[in-house]
Amino acid sequence: MFSERELERYKRQMMLFGEEGQERLKKAHIFIAGAGGLGSPISIYLAVAGVGTITIVDMDVVDLTNLNRQVLHFDRDIGKKKTASAEDKLQALNPDITVNAIDVKIDESNAVKLVGKADGIVDAMDNFKTRYLLNNAAIANEIPFFHGGIRGFYGQATTIIPGTTPCLKCIFPKAPPKEVFPVVGVTPGIIGTIQANEVIKYLIGSGELLTNRLFIWDGMQAHAEELGVERNPACEACSGMTTKKTTARKK
Amino acid sequence: MQWYDNKENNSEKEMTVKIRFFARFRELLGTDIVIDVAAATMFTHLITTIARKNPEGYAAIFDENGTFHEFVILMKNGKRIELTDAATTPVADGDEIAVFPPVAGG
User: Fold this and answer.
1) Which residues of A are less than 8 Å from B76 in CB distance?
2) Each residue of B16-44: b (16+ CB within 10 Å) or e?
3) Is A188 within 8 Å of B106 when comparing Cβ atoms?
4) Of A123, A176, A218, the CB nearest to B101
5) Which of A24, A54, A184, B28 is the most exposed place for a label (fewest CB within 10 A)?
6) Residue A240 binned pLDDT confidence (cut-offs 50, 70, 90)
7) How many angstroms separate the CA of residue B78 from the nearest CA in chain A?
8) If you classify domain B13-100 with CATH, what class do you get?
9) Is the pLDDT reported for residue B10 higher than 50?
10) What mean pLDDT do residues B37-58 have?
11) Predicted confidence band at A241 (pLDDT cuts at 50, 70, 90)?
12) What domains appear along chain A, each with residue ranges and CATH number?
């Protein structure tokens, strides 16, 4: 049930997917791994869309060099924990949702536990090592993993439904070397909103997900394209899973 | 494929392929490179030849032994080519080849 306030708040999007779709968003719990460049637009748009419970995890402190892209954090937040800053902003944007901000490093020992009963994991990480852990957690819990990655003016995104689509390891079996990557804020803005859009479609159970396709964005050319991707039958992460028919959340 | 079959009888057996680089590779080497190659040209040979035009581009894709960096993704007409097979996989006329790195930032 929605309050009068909520009905008013979500009025314009309920024109698209009705009270039923809004109810699905409200009942959902989404896990966002990272409160940085990608995590900012992802969490902002999922919060204002009314995703009922958002867990956002980060281990860093806001640094001045973050502020060209991490729009969740303000100049006054420099030195603050990103989780504290994220919680403040997301609750200020939408007091009608629940935000759990967890200040921890995601590692092998805690990944599955942190994800808990979430309905989906959104990848807002800056390294493949942690992405692979999240990929494994999504496979273990049989929940979708919304991948995004950026560098400079380039970005990529895909939606992974374990057992149905290729997993992150099928597509990218080996991590690129770690680096201090160049980036301008618009790139995570574009890729992050694509990821948030995927989450919303998945939760309301409509539309065509970005599954079996790697979306590739070249901001310099203003050109987007996609490459078909396939499961690797020998994938070390997901090869044991049987193919399922569902690609969207059950109604 | 009919076109390719017809060309089988052509003694020169020259073929045209298109190479598409992405992200950092694109910055260093350009993209949508259409090139004529001899029959039985192998993937690794083709990409090595093109990458050599820019030492930085070459170093982004290959290590000092001339082997692909392990994170490089190779695709032929939307299908993945394993790096270990690239040296022995010939390209075919009309192939569209994609070469890209995962982008890791967030």
Assistant:
1) none
2) ebebbbbbbbbbbbebeeeeebeeebbbb
3) yes
4) A176
5) A184
6) confident
7) 6
8) alpha beta
9) no
10) 96
11) confident
12) 4-228 (3.40.50.720)
**Encoded amino acid at A225, one letter:** E
CB contact under 8 A, A174 and B70: yes
- Mean pLDDT across B18-43: 95
Choose among A115, A174, A172: nearest CA to A141.
A115
Cβ atoms of A146 and A195 within 8 Å: the answer is yes
Interface of B with A (CB under 8 A): 22-24, 26-27, 69-71, 73, 75, 78-80, 98, 100-106
Closest by alpha carbon to A237, among A149, A166, A136? A136
Other Cβ atoms closer than 10 A to A55: 20
Biggest CA–CA distance in chain B, Å, is 51
Supply the DSSP symbol for A62. -
Is B78–A228 a contact, with Cβ atoms under 8 angstroms apart?
Answer: yes
The verdict on a CB contact (< 8 Å) between B105 and A126 is yes
